[in-house]
Amino acid sequence: MKGTLYIFIILIIFGLLLYLPFISGKEFQGEEGRRVLIALQMLETKEYLLPQLFGEPYFQKPPLFNLALAGFFKLTGDHSEFTARAFSALSMIVSSLFLTSIWMKILNSLAERRKEFFILSLLPGLIFLTTPEVIDKALRAEIDAFYTLLITLSLFSWFYLHEIKNKKYLAFGISGFFLGLGILTKTFQALLFFYLAFLPYLFFQKRLREFSGLPHFFGILTIFSVFFFWAIPVSQKVGLKPFISAWLSEYLSSARAQEMGFLQHLESFTLQALLGFSPWIFTLLALRKEPLRNFFKEREPLNKLLLFSLFLFVFGYFFHFLFPGARLRYMLPSISGLVMTATLVFYYYLQRDKLSQTLQTLLKLFLWLNIILLFAFIIYLLYRTFEVSPFFYLFVIFFLFLNLFFLLKKLNSSVSLFFYLVLYVFFAKQIYVSFYYPLHQKEMNYFRNSAFEIAELIKDKKELYLCQVIPHHLIYYLKYRYQLIEKVEYLKDCTSLPEKSYILLKDKNLLSEKNNIIKIYPLEIRGKNYFLIKTE
Predict the structure, then answer these.
(1) How far apart are CA 362 and CA 382, in angstroms?
(2) Quick check: 140 pLDDT over 90?
(3) pLDDT of residue 514
(4) Average of pLDDT values for 94-122?
(5) Alpha carbon of residue 2 to chain centroid
(6) Cα dist. 112→106, 116, 262, 341, 438 in Å?
(7) Which intervals hold domain Glycosyltransferase RgtA/B/C/D-like (predicted)?
(8) Using alpha carbons only, what angle is made at residue 87 by residues 83 and 92, rounded to the nearest 5 degrees?
């Protein structure tokens, strides 16, 4: 018990140190502003079942993420960029703790007790936390991290309870509960990840009859019980049809979206996967080795874990690969499959004393390459005019010492390789954020600067109307983050504008000749043209 606590403390501290530095430096991007606005308006209106934006129902996504984020804002008493993004970071840390807990329970179920148990226990947590695609989503106030947590809880609670403990009804019940929450977070695609692993796993083990078994139907009943717990009261308010229509429309638009040809998508998606899941994705190459496969075949719990994890990641990848409009983040919930597969590969190799001579040579070249590139980057910066954070140079020094240390010590064991990769990702991430985030804050603060510009134009009015446009990031900074204005109202009809007011719009053609306009202020906000209208 004490050992488990120490392992959890190490992972929590490591995760916080990895994710939190500079996390609030960059202004909101992508869908962050929309997610945060909906959560904040839930707190304002006390309407938690039906997500809304300025009184208009938001049908594209169910409310659970916004509800969880609103709860986190309420709990912390803060709604800054730091807090909004920290919720995602904590979601990823909890995912790593859960995978570690499952892994430790499986290790304890084995007859053999390894002397490296403490190091072995850290494997899945550290691999998960240091996967670049996980890091990217841990730094954003978006759905992906929380959604990944729910799917991970569903998948591996089922695996452990069903395959290790043989508690079939409990396995499907708990898994179904989290799948239901997944549906309430990002619609019915939550089911996709479970069945992409579940069906191939049963098929490979010649157990497809379990698909029609009572425990599975109990799980399905649990899933839809959770869904209808929300759907029934919402249907009494606005009906379910607007939600279902919006979800189907989003599925179809994602599937049909084709910004590039299939061959371009093949190259782009594969390259993104290699970068986003490095360095751990390269552990899949080890599965070609017959001694490794035989090792796991002799240990049934580990072999089952390997099959389930591999099916989850591989089928998750190929399913999304089939759609040219798919983004790598769509398959993020299947990352736990790669994490567990990489964990098992390192579990096998930690029993071997030394790495092969060929691999040692390649790693030595990699270390030299890192040192050369690091010096080249520093020389490049000497000829640039922008200032760099002192933390950047500190992390560069750490990164340099890391590579020099393993170059002199010789990177010749699986343990040293594993910790080198973990520290490599850690310092590479810190170098990136300590360089780019302050630069972004200084050179690309579009919405923050625009918020103050609009506040200066409005002066003491403290009220803004939106004419058929909702710039989410801008409104967040104007009303909530800096509290520059007190009231924001959305206008469906712009033909009759309120008197003595300020109205923000994108299309001047929406205005009517009846409007008594005193002044039009043209604005450019992150490359887009807006107009601030002042009426008599």
Answers:
(1) 31
(2) yes
(3) 62
(4) 87
(5) 31
(6) 11, 12, 48, 20, 50
(7) 61-228
(8) 145
